[in-house]
Backbone:
């Protein structure tokens, strides 16, 4: 534990989160670009990168767990408990979002290889998704309730819903479905309860 989270557990968490979450957001941004540019090879390259980067999310989980032990048992670190607790409660949902995102990226590549129609709202949805991951990290570090991250998640779902109401192919609909699953996990990461997260995603998908 002392190796993973030594004298400054928050600094250790920030370093691991900077690496894992910024890379995660960047990969989703590049997937959005592949859809805009209709570049199937770029989507495939992103998928390869995501397979290689999964250990960074695992390491983040380990670091957060160790940091949580430090701030709970060291009076000198108690003022950091709120921030570390937010990561501890959110990181399992972020890991699930990451794993579901690999299916999303894989299907984005399939849609492009099959020359499916890609409405502009679909890459826009992914751009909002990537922004939500960045905002979640930023708001956690600031000790703030992640309201901006929640709104960006719902913006992503709204754009994906619009894409579904346009000319979209089979793989495109799976991209939308996976994005809704990911959105539910990201909302849970922000502290939204399970039933409420599902309700918010359904309303956003319907355009409300």
Residues:
């Amino acid at each position: 534990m002392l190796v993973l989270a030594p004298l400054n557990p928050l600094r250790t968490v920030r370093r691991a989160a900077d690496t894992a979450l910024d890379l995660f957001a960047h990969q989703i941004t590049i997937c959005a670009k592949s859809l805009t540019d209709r570049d199937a090879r770029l989507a495939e390259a992103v998928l390869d990168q995501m397979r290689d980067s999964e250990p960074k999310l695992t390491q983040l989980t380990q670091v957060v767990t160790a940091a949580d032990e430090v701030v709970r048992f060291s009076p000198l670190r108690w003022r950091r408990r709120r921030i570390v607790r937010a990561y501890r409660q959110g990181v399992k949902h972020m890991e699930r979002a990451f794993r579901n995102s690999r299916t999303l990226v894989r299907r984005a590549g399939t849609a492009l290889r099959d020359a499916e129609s890609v409405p502009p709202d679909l890459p826009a949805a992914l751009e909002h998704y990537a922004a939500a991951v960045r905002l979640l990290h930023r708001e956690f570090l600031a000790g703030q309730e992640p309201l901006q991250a929640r709104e960006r998640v719902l913006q992503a779902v709204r754009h994906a819903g619009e894409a579904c109401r346009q000319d979209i192919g089979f793989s495109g609909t799976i991209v939308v479905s996976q994005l809704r699953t990911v959105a539910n996990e990201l909302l849970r990461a922000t502290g939204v309860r399970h039933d409420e997260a599902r309700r918010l995603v359904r309303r956003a998908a319907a355009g409300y």
